[in-house]
Amino acid sequence: MHVIYGGTFDPVHHGHLRLAVELKERLGVSGIAMVPCHIPPHREAPGTSSAQRLRLLELAVSGEPGLHVDDREVVRGGASFTADTLRQLRATLGEREPLAMVVGTDAFAGFDRWRDWQAIPDLAHIIVIDRPGPGLPPDSAPARLLAERRVASVAELHRRPSGGCLWLDLPLLDISATGIRERIRTGRSPRYLLPDVVWEAIRRDGLYGAGQPLRR
Ligand SMILES: Nc1ncnc2c1ncn2[C@@H]1O[C@H](COP(=O)(O)OP(=O)(O)OP(=O)(O)O)[C@@H](O)[C@H]1O
Ligand SMILES: O=C(O)c1ccc[n+]([C@@H]2O[C@H](COP(=O)([O-])O)[C@@H](O)[C@H]2O)c1
């Protein structure tokens, strides 16, 4: 099964990386493809370029054989619609290989506003990671999709190419990229929230206001 985990990763942090490792083990796959978006479709444009976010992600996963970076959205350019990414992948994987996308409940709550969202279940399985927060509004389109397509086990995802929705409860770290950017901007340390190699690169390149004198 080919598994993609997409995000803005602005910057990547240990919450993302731990989730990816937990997923790899829970799904019994050889690797997870992390897919940084070029232009995120439904949020403000990041202050960093996709090339910078991609570079930080590559540094973060280097030396970890179970995680790799798929740069197709950065290479494709434009708004990073997941349906386009899944269609590209389906074209190379063929019709029979199971393909799955991973998404947190926060992102999945707005799934019915994604471009061409109704086509996505026919392209891939959807793995929803239960994150703390408001959760899914009970009568929303994403909640109905989950109820209709829900599978009870990982084994069911391996048995068919697409179409299942798996709700997974995994141990998560309470870390957000917003919190990290805010720490850096205000001159506080984000250390231990993200890999040292990523923090070193952020400082070296002066990203997120690192190294700038504080304006009070
Ligand atoms: N700490 C975390 N643990 C597990 N999953 C996470 C964590 N943070 C984000 N995710 C999930 O990773 C994906 C990409 O998230 P994203 O790049 O937006 O990170 P973020 O930390 O939520 O960023 P921001 O604070 O800028 O919104 C989303 O599906 C999101 O639900
Ligand atoms: O395809 C869409 O319309 C779409 C809309 C919103 C989000 N996504 C994808 O969802 C993933 C998580 O997004 P984010 O904003 O939480 O980083 C990321 O891979 C985005 O490209 C995709």
From N to C, what is the helix and strand string? EHEHEHHEHHEHHEHH
**What is the CATH T-level topology?**
Rossmann fold
Structural class: alpha/beta
Number of helices: 10
What's the N-to-C terminus distance? 51 Å
Regarding CATH, which class? Answer: Alpha Beta
The CATH architecture: 3-Layer(aba) Sandwich
What spatial order of strands do you see in the largest sheet?
A: 3-2-1-4-5-6
Q: What percentage of residues falls in helices of 4 or more residues?
A: 25-40%
Number of strands: 6
Supply Rg.
17 Å
Which descriptor suits the 3D outline? globular
Strand content: 5-15%
- The figure for the number of domains is 1
Distinctive features:
single chain, 216 residues, alpha/beta, Rossmann fold, 10 helices, 6 strands, globular, binds adenosine-5'-triphosphate, binds nicotinate mononucleotide, pyridine nucleotide biosynthesis, nucleotide-binding
Short characterization:
The protein contains ten helices and six strands, in the order βαβαβααβααβααβαα. The protein has 216 residues and is of the alpha/beta class. The protein has a single domain, classed as HUPs (Rossmann fold).
Structure overview:
The protein is an alpha/beta fold and 216 residues long. The protein has one domain: 3-Layer(aba) Sandwich (Rossmann fold), CATH 3.40.50.620. The chain contains 10 helices and 6 strands. It has a 6-stranded parallel β-sheet, sandwiched between helices. Strand 2, helix 2 and strand 3 form a beta-alpha-beta unit. Helix 2 packs antiparallel against helix 10. The longest helix has 14 residues. Adenosine-5'-triphosphate binds next to helix 1, strand 4, helix 5 and helix 9. Its EC number is 2.7.7.18.
